[in-house]
């Protein structure tokens, strides 16, 4: 009993991600090199990835690739292609399964901290994105490729043998251009084509450079050979233009803005005579997320998932705290940078000038970080700018329709925006759900991770579909007996 009388002080107890954040903040800014053939390259041409919640600081300084460096990356990837393509499938699978374990265990908190600091996500969002989703991408990817490779001819013709159907990687290299908003997509864009034997030149987003660099380190530690995935940060227009001009350019794996994707598609078309083969183009771009609330909807559910009826909706919006994501009491962090801040606040102003009513929010502060308050705009014009165009910020535009106009409102949703990324229908009446689902069949992709129309090619991560885009099948038939005649049997005398 005497031992229990001793005076002692319990050490400070901290959440693990927060501890990782504090350690990272003490060590930043980091220096990020280009990685070519497994070797760090420092061009001396430097750029900074700012911390969006405190733009006086930056999480890293990274070296930008120049023309010579991009050329080395492409040629190095092509040189690594033969061995990587020839590696047995079980070994490639093991590498990505190991990467998934490194992400979910050894590097979990470091990757989460880099996503919180560098990309402004709160701890919950960063956990889902950087740790859970990225490891899921790799693990499910291995499973999907196993299923793909198992798809073989069910039988052979008499006197012949069809060797196993080959699912070859594309001839040339894949260019992966990843976005700032998901660390998981940063890893998956180069990871998916590499999993089926392709070599990749990866150009990460300037605003996600550090977390993506950690992902590349993880892939290297997992066993991805040097040169298979080249890490090439740099100015997007120059790096991408040089890559898609190359004769061996085989595919673009892209997530980013609709404008940029359309431009790249045009640029690729203009280069079509230069290529060895027809490049594959896979992209996820912009979006508008519609939430349609039917009169039969359960209001509380609709409010918590989107927006719904005015009083409850505004009451819930008012609860949302905005601030640095290092404070776990904040739900919404900063937008990614000044261009995004100015774009979002510009849309709010345009909506007001067009007659939209700001029901809540509308304020923004960029004195320290790029913070925009959750904003709800009430519009009486279903074709207003904030209903049609992508804002990519914490802004909801509400349009109130008469219950009897449900069918007309479905037409409005289907035609107002050119995007077709995600959507939700709130109703308890089965017929209303059927009616809306059928009429809005093409208004949202809702594929595991992709969208249609102007939102992309709708074949992104989350299913086996994405892997078909990065393979080229070959069937080999062996004849066991010689052909005696070349003519049709009916023509023989």
Automatic annotation (TrEMBL):
Species annotation: Multifurca ochricompacta
PROSITE patterns, A to Z: ALDEHYDE_DEHYDR_GLU
Pfam families: Aldedh
Signal peptide (from-to): none
Transmembrane regions: none
InterPro entries referenced in this protein's UniProt entry, alphabetically: Ald_DH/histidinol_DH, Ald_DH_C, Ald_DH_CS_GLU, Ald_DH_N, Aldehyde_DH_dom, Proline_metab_enzyme
Record-stated family: Belongs to the aldehyde dehydrogenase family.
Keyword Isomerase: no
Full protein name: Delta-1-pyrroline-5-carboxylate dehydrogenase
């Amino acid at each position: 009993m005497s031992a229990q009388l001793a005076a002692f002080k319990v050490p400070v107890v901290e959440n693990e991600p927060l501890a990782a954040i504090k350690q990272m903040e003490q060590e930043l800014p980091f220096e990020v090199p280009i990685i070519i053939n497994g070797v760090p390259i420092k061009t001396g041409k430097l750029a900074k990835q700012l911390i969006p919640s405190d733009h006086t600081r930056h999480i890293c300084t990274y070296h930008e690739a120049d023309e010579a460096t991009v050329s080395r990356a492409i040629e190095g990837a092509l040189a690594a292609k033969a061995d990587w393509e020839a590696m047995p499938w079980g070994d490639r699978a093991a590498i990505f399964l190991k990467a998934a374990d490194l992400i979910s265990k050894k590097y979990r908190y470091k990757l989460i901290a880099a996503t919180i600091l560098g990309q402004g996500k709160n701890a919950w969002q960063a956990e889902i994105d950087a740790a859970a989703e990225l490891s899921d991408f790799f693990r499910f990817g291995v499973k999907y490729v196993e299923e793909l490779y198992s798809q073989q001819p069910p039988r052979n013709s008499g006197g012949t043998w069809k060797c196993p159907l080959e699912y070859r990687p594309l001839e040339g290299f894949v260019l992966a251009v990843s976005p700032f908003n998901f660390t998981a997509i940063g890893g998956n864009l180069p990871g998916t084509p590499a999993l089926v034997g392709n070599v990749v030149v990866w150009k990460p987003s300037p605003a996600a450079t550090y977390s993506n660099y950690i992902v590349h380190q993880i892939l290297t530690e997992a066993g991805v050979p040097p040169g298979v995935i080249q890490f090439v940060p740099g100015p997007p227009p120059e790096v991408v233009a040089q890559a898609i001009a190359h004769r061996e350019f085989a595919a673009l794996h892209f997530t980013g803005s609709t404008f940029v994707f359309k431009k790249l598609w045009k640029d690729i078309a203009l280069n079509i005579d230069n290529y060895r083969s027809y490049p594959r183009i896979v992209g996820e771009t912009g979006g508008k997320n519609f939430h349609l609330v039917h009169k039969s909807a359960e209001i509380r559910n609709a409010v918590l998932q989107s927006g719904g009826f005015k009083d409850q909706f505004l009451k819930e919006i008012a609860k949302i705290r905005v601030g640095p994501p290092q404070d776990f009491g904040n739900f919404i962090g900063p937008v990614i940078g000044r261009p995004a801040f100015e774009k979002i606040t510009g849309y709010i102003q345009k909506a007001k000038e067009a007659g939209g009513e700001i029901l809540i929010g509308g304020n923004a502060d960029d004195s320290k970080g790029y913070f925009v308050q959750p904003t709800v705009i009430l519009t009486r014009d279903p074709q207003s700018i904030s209903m049609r165009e992508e804002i990519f910020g914490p802004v909801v535009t509400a349009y109130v329709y008469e219950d009897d106009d449900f069918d007309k409102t479905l037409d409005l949703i289907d035609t107002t925006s050119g995007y077709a990324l995600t959507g939700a229908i709130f109703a308890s009446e089965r017929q209303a759900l059927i009616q809306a689902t059928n009429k809005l069949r093409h208004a949202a992709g809702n594929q595991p991770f992709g969208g249609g129309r102007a939102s992309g090619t709708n074949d992104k991560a989350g299913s086996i579909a994405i892997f078909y885009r990065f393979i080229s099948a070959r069937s080999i038939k062996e004849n066991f007996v010689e052909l005696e005649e070349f003519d049709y049997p009916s023509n023989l005398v």
